[in-house]
Amino acid sequence: APDPRPILDLFRIGGRHAVVTGAAQGIGFEIAKGLAQAGARVTIADLNPDVGEAAAASIGGTFEVLDVTDVAAVAALAARLPDVEILVNNAGIVRNTPAEDTPDDDWRAVMTVNVDGVFWCCREFGRAMLARGRGSIVSTASMSGMISNHPQPQAAYNASKAAVIHLTRSLAGEWASRGVRVNCVSPGYTATPMTKRGLDTPEWRATWLGETPMGRLAEPFEIAPAVLYLASDAASFVTGHSLVVDGGYVCW
Ligand code: NAD
């Protein structure tokens, strides 16, 4: 049946409980802020309580210390917050090492946070969503899951983000008929603490700007509306999608 709501109301998520991981700073914080402005009750779940507590307070949300790689902690949080309808898997890390010199621990750290962490959260928060027959999951993947960034070497990161995009498709297929949509956003270069090293490295900076058709990096707030769209009823028939927000990078 047609939805009687005016189109902008489809973006409202009033009263829904949203958990955003890795949202003490950077892209995650802007996503948390945007979801709060759209009416959600927001929980920021991050490793870093020093920054995270203040970040949550500034948007009227709550803070939970969480390491997404700690599956028992993820399960415990999901059990304590059974009403979560929106999960944003945003926590992620990068390591820049030439492939042939990549230490085992760097490879594992990237995969553990960026892939395992996303799956643990999907599995643990997804159960209650499936039981309720309603939920929306949005992960922060990356354009790095579609192209191999350069000049900085980051094979583990690129592989991890490709995994997030395909995990998204896989879960979307499994859960589509049960009311749970699973999507991701794939940002291009975005000005956050994560990219500071690159911006401070003249060769990296020149390549990043030169190869982004818009000639600049994204600001973190420019990623949030894409997440809101996918999280909300505006995307009621969208699942398994990777929404690229990259200033045209992957087109070139
Ligand atoms: P950031 O480093 O500024 O922030 C990452 C946040 O995640 C921090 O608050 C950190 O404490 C938290 N975090 C790290 N490990 C965690 C863990 N194990 N458990 C819980 N929280 C953890 O990074 P950002 O640039 O804002 O990136 C956010 C997401 O966007 C990441 O998944 C990143 O891969 C992705 N991304 C970033 C860019 C970019 O150019 N900045 C581009 C594409 C995708």
TrEMBL record:
Record domain Ig-like: where: 153-252
Annotated Gene3D superfamilies: NAD(P)-binding Rossmann-like Domain
Alphabetized InterPro entries for the sequence: Ig-like_dom, NAD(P)-bd_dom_sf, Sc_DH/Rdtase_CS, SDR_fam
UniProtKB keywords: Oxidoreductase
UniProt-listed Pfam families: adh_short_C2
Sample GO molecular function, one term: oxidoreductase activity, acting on the CH-OH group of donors, NAD or NADP as acceptor
GO BP annotations listed: carbohydrate metabolic process
Family membership: Belongs to the short-chain dehydrogenases/reductases (SDR) family.
Name of this chain's protein: 3-oxoacyl-ACP reductase
